[in-house]
Amino acid sequence: MRKRFLIYTLPVPLIAATTAAVVLSPSAHADEANQALEETIDSILEDPRLVGSHASVVVADPETGEVIYDRNGEDRQLPASNVKLLTSAAAIDILGEDYRFDTDVHVDGKVRGSAAIGDLYLRGTGDPTMLQEDYVDLAQQVAATGIKTVTGDLVADDTRFDDTRLGRSWPWDNEQFYYQAQISPLTLAPDTDYDAGTVFVSVTPSDSPDEAPTVTLQPETDYVTIDNTATTVASGGANNLQITRKHATNTIAISGTIPVDANNRNSWTTVWEPTGYATAVFADALKDAGVRVIGDVRLGQEVPEDALTVATHQSMTLEDLMIPFMKLSNNGHSEALVKTIGHEVSGAGTWNAGLAAIADFLADQGVDTSVLSQADGSGLSRQNLVAANEFIDLLSATKDAHWYETWYDSLPIACEGERLVGGTLRSRMCGTPAESNARAKTGSLNGVSGLSGYVTDADGRDLVFSILLNKYVMPGGVKDIEDQIVIALASFSAEEASAPMPQYSPPASEIDGDLECSWVKPAVC
Questions:
Q1: Are 258 and 236 within 8 A, CB to CB?
Q2: Distance of alpha carbon 236 from its chain centroid, rounded?
Q3: Cα torsion at 130, 413, 368, 93 (round to 10°)?
Q4: Sign of the dihedral through C-alpha 66, 72, 74, 76
Q5: What residues act catalytically?
Q6: 118 falls in which pLDDT band (50, 70, 90)?
Q7: Domain 26-37+53-97+320-520 homologous superfamily, CATH
Q8: DSSP annotation of 213
Q9: Helix axis angle, 331-346 relative to 318-327, nearest 10°?
Q10: CATH code, residues 102-164+274-315
Q11: CA gyration radius for the chain?
Q12: How far is CA 376 from the centre of its chain?
């Protein structure tokens, strides 16, 4: 049974009182050190920002199963992106590290000379890493077969998944932001962060006041329409430029003002219906490759079984995909994997089918799925409810999995500055024993923060931890509270009960404390 501990009202350093005349046995020494650690974590959780909130914190030794600290570990909490721990582990186990997505092109009909007599099909199977250059390569493969004319239509096959594009209870007012892109098996990312279903919009001020700024898109496509009513103003003028996509359209409105000497304003903006977006970019690539499609563009029809394959593309392996997925906390990757799991396990590319398969995997790992609720793969939904204890059980069980090293390597690392190494922890816990030590999944929603993962203590012992903080409303965020707990764990020694906990002051940041790098993509973090 896991123990509960009282909250102390004053900060208590990681120092245990000792008397020179008393010689402690090793077990007594460890008990004393553990008590000091408990008191330290309790004192950290006394932070005024957590008054009226709900905190769950569990720390355990995965080798022995010993629970070192437990505060409300059985209470279900909103986990935010800590849900990705469940999704990613299940994906590696069910799909395999070598799993790849296919995107291919087919002709439904005869090829006579340079003419394809029939329709040309573009089929996607869920690859969230497709770039414009990949569609260009597919188009060039088609041209290399000698086809110059398609007498029928260009048809998009996105039937691998269902047509439910947005997840359960996702907030409607976030639908234009890149972290809440629509999910389709046929999609397109504007760059190698692989934010599928988005277009990169960059607004550059004019050289002269009173003129409209310049708007560029990556990729360049007519699938979206720019409505630019913005104005460039003199140096020192208001910089209040806004980039918004109008609901249920692909009209991106640029409004407000931007000074002549301001930096570009950039946005990764979602598109409405990513299947159409990918197909439009492929259609342009066909034209550039010298392939003319006489008919129209149609969406959502399955490739006939006897169609002729004329071009193929394979994604990176799932092992490689795990890096941008987990390091940058990519929501779209999570959801594509959930639906892919559903398709591979039960033949249904749906959230329900994928989540059912994930639940079966978790149960096999010893996670009590009867006490948790997983509503999506990414943690965007506020219907997700997971107890810290269940994360501890998963983090402990995975150490015996054959794919553990791949999973472990995908986690963000404290204060490792490279984006695809440190990920969402790259600016945190610097200059402390947790630096380059703690590996964990971050999580953020309004009033919700989480950090769950691994850290090695001062004795070289690996620990697992889960910190879930909910219902706080104080400004400034609570990320540094999580950091202080992890630093205390990295500093902890059962052999040296008198070792003090390092003092930690988080660096000033231009980012709202409630957010993390994966939400805002700033250059400063």
A1: no
A2: 37
A3: 40
A4: negative
A5: 81, 84, 329
A6: very high
A7: DD-peptidase/beta-lactamase superfamily (3.40.710.10)
A8: P
A9: 140
A10: 3.50.80.20
A11: 26
A12: 12
pLDDT band of residue 221 (cuts 50, 70, 90) is very high
Element (H, E) at 226: strand 225-228
- The predicted-structure confidence for 388-414, as pLDDT tens digits, reads as follows 999 999 999 999 999 999 999 999 999
Coil, strand, or helix at residue 319?
A: helix
Identify whether the C-beta of residue 301 lies closer than 8 Å to the C-beta of residue 159.
Answer: yes
Strands (E), 138-218: 149-150, 154-157, 198-204, 214-218
| Residue located via tokens 């107890």 | 387
pLDDT at 3: 34
User: What is the phi/psi pair of residue 511, to 5°?
Assistant: -100, 140
Q: pTM of the prediction? A: 0.92
Residue 116 has phi, psi (to 5 degrees) of -95, 115
The position carrying tokens 């008191």 is 39
Q: What pLDDT is recorded for position 27?
A: 64
Question: Which amino acid is residue 350, in one-letter code?
Answer: T
SS3 247: coil
DSSP state of 178: G
Quote the tokens at residue 477.
Answer: 């965020």
Share of the chain above pLDDT 90, in %: 86
In the chain, what are the domain boundaries? 26-37+53-97+320-520, 102-164+274-315, 198-270
**Residues β-bridged to residue 253:** 227, 244
